[in-house]
Amino acid sequence: MGRKDSGTAGPSQPAYEVNARVSCKTTFDQQYHAADIIDRKQDGKTGKWRYYVHYLEFDKRLDEWVGQERVASIAKVASADGLHRVASGGGSGDLGPMAGDQKMTRRLKRQYTEIHHVPAALEELPPIDQHLEKEHQEKTKVKNIQTVELGRHEMDTWYYSPYPEPHASCQKLYICEYTLKYFRKKKTLLRHLAKCQLRHPPGDEIYRSPPPPANDPAYVGGAVTSPPISMFEVDGKKSKVYCQNLCLLSKLFLDHKTLYYDVDPFLFYVLCEKDAQGYHIVGYFSKEKNSAEGNNLACILTLPPYQRKGYGRFLIAFSYELSKKEGRVGSPERPLSDLGAVSYRSYWTREILEVLREHKASLSIKDISERTAIRTDDVVKTLESLSLIKYWKGDHIISVTQKIVEEHLKTIANQRNIEIDLNRLHWTPYRQEPPAKKPCHEALRLVPAPSDLTAREIMAQLSPRFGWQHKLWNLSAVEALLEEHRPEFVPMFQGFPKLVQRIDAAKYLVLEVFGGFYLDTYVECFREPSDTLDGFDMIVQEDYPGAAVNSGLIACMPKHPAWKHAFDLMVERKDHDPKDTGFSTGPQIVRDMLLRWHNVTVGSNGLLPPLLKHPDGRITRIYKLGTWCTPCGYADNDCHEQFMLQRVVGSVNLTEMVAYHRFTATWLGYRDGVRPQAKDTVRAMFCKECTEELKQCRAQQLTEAPS
Q: Of the residues 64, 177, 333, 351, which is catalytic?
């Protein structure tokens, strides 16, 4: 609930600047703690200051606005109260990770970090993520919404959430607990509820807790709960608005949840308590429909009023029961929040100890993983935290007796535990409908990059979910492909004065032979884009209207005849100024190729029509700028910066767009102070699910580049 400060400030109360470090009396324990001033505002009538502070010892969820009477210099508070040390980090009275003279070894530091959930420092993040993290911290440093009213509960929020304006500027939001629709005023919510027919989450009810025994209606225990609970499976593709609203709500209580408006790839499992009025949301977890990393959970949240009641552990247990039905092991997506890490460690500990007790501690790590569906590395970390495992001659050995297992179980015997009655779980694993058969579903990248390692790391970080394998193409491999398919073009290819021209020609060649998706190295995919090719033979997007087509992302079917015109055009323009690579080999080649092949001309506005149908039946889809890939032309730096900032906080609607070109460290020149070292290699990355025919072609025609 919101809190108000009391008391008045004296006339000599100093005004502190933003970023100043002060001592602040908190509203949650009435003690002074070291804090940084994040923001401030002054009352126009009284002249008093209010400060938004972050306490160095505590998580951001406790950041708050306080009156100036609660703020003082650290030195002043320390001298006034010698008994209470104003801490500057590490927890109240905690001297840091290792008090005293104990040496902080790497192993002890790692254990401390895991136990206390210390987030990675900015400089420890991959370079590609540091800029995004800085923007995230800057944009989300001040909570925009202070409280929300959901059903019968009013909750203080913990973090920033990118609700759209004008809702984002409200101190308090009113949310319908059935639809999760949000309102600025209570009377608007009441009008909505009077018309709202929904009394449970959309989707299928897949679990309902059992009723108490007939002879003991007040019984609660095991899987029997009071009130009864239900789980609903909600498909993000079928109930898009509900799931987007759920993500916005959860972001108020999760700091580093990556929030996208594209919820299609996810299933949401919503836990509710049931009473006569309907089903009241308690929490949820989400999971990808098809996770390349084998994760069984992407995000988990128990709303604050329902915490410490065993619901968090129930949600975790439910995700593993689904994994067991799928016949595979699973693990949550990282990173976990601090509360999430505690909940998972508690769940893993109990499950592993129960299995060890049942089998009298005579199991291997693999055995435990198969019985619990917990991934082996999570099993190992949990056993290490309990000191029940040893590393001997290159292998992990479980070292435990039945007595030790019982002693550990006694320490957690009083934890709240809601069991799952598997007889009341009615669920079948999600099965994605197989796509229509096509000669190729590939993701291809050809790029110059500073090094093989850098290129691989960039690709893995920007498009980690899609199961792509990396394959390197050197120029000799491309020339071999040319010799096979377009031998007449080899001399011109070898004579290009610029590397980017050879890369342009190489990607046209590979798209012509194999089809699929071409993406520049720094194209970030929001989702697996193959389905966008359904019903079309080629997809492109205009770059700057009337001038070119974005050649950083192209999709087409194999053996597409339009590419012949691309090679013809490059030959015709071989004597053109080599500085104008966009015209001689780049984006304008793709645009003019389509005009020539379809035998059309552009309108007076210079724009291409959205659909072009060739007499042979092939259809080309031409997206307008910002509707399929990057929303900006490559030179629109202000637009890029604005879009990246919106991406960080999740306020961009990514329903239609599938990818974004960062234009970072590419041949275009200096971006973020980085200029690439040109290498005479081009690189390709193929999707694992390419056809056997393509595998054979690749084995016959291409050679792996040297490492």
A: 333
Mention every residue, 6+ apart, whose C-beta is less than 8 A from residue 38. Answer: 18, 52, 53, 54, 63, 141, 142
pLDDT band at 87 (very low <50, low <70, confident <90, very high): very low
Does the CA dihedral 445-447-452-456 come out positive or negative? negative
| Residue 286 bridge partners (DSSP) | 268, 299
Rounded mean pLDDT of the chain?
Answer: 76
The domains of the chain are located at 21-96, 100-139, 199-424, 443-701
For the full predicted model, state whether its pTM sits above 0.85.
no
The fold of 199-424 is Aminopeptidase (3.40.630)
Q: Cα–Cα distance between 423 and 547 in angstroms, integer?
A: 63
Q: Could you tell me which residues are beta bridge partners of residue 32?
A: 25
Q: What does the DSSP 8-state code read for residue 354?
A: H
CA atoms within 13 A on the CB side of 696: 4
- The whole-angstrom separation of Cα 476 and Cα 344 is 51
Place 690 in a pLDDT band, splitting at 50, 70 and 90: very low
d(CA 264, CA 107): 41
Q: Which of 669, 442, 439 has the alpha carbon at shortest distance from 554? A: 442
pLDDT at 486 over 70: yes
Q: Check residue 700 and report its DSSP letter.
A: H
Q: Which amino acid is at 698?
A: R
Query: Residue 367 in 3-state DSSP?
Result: helix
Q: Give me the CATH topology for the region 21-96.
A: SH3 type barrels. (2.30.30)
- Residue 430 pLDDT level (bands cut at 50, 70, 90): confident
Give SS3 for 613.
Answer: strand
Other beta carbons less than 10 A from residue 311's beta carbon:
21
The strand order across the sheet containing 71-72 reads 64-67, 49-55, 32-42, 21-25, 71-72
Q: How many residues does the chain have?
A: 707
CB atoms within 10 A of CB 122: 11
Percent of the chain with pLDDT over 90: 37
Q: How many CB atoms lie within 10 A of CB 560?
A: 16
Q: Which residue intervals of 58-185 are DSSP H helices?
A: 74-80, 106-116, 127-139
Buried-exposed string 206-242: b where 16+ CB fall within 10 A, e elsewhere: bbbbeebeeeeeeeeeebbbeebbbbbbbbbeebeeb
d(CA 610, CA 505): 25
- Give the Cα separation of 245 and 177 in Å (integer): 11
Element (H, E) at 650: none
Is 333 labeled as catalytic in the residue annotation?
yes
Q: Do 212 and 121 meet the contact criterion of CB atoms below 8 Å apart?
A: no
Quote the strand ranges of 43-96, DSSP E.
49-55, 64-67, 71-72
Euclidean distance between CA atoms 512 and 254, whole angstroms? 46
Please write the tens of the pLDDT for every residue from 145-190: 999 999 999 999 998 888 888 998 899 999 999 999 999 999 999 9
Helix (H) or strand (E) holding 36: strand 32-42
Which residue's structure tokens are 């995004």? 132
Query: At 6, which helix (H) or strand (E)?
Result: none
Amino acid identity of residue 404, one-letter, is I
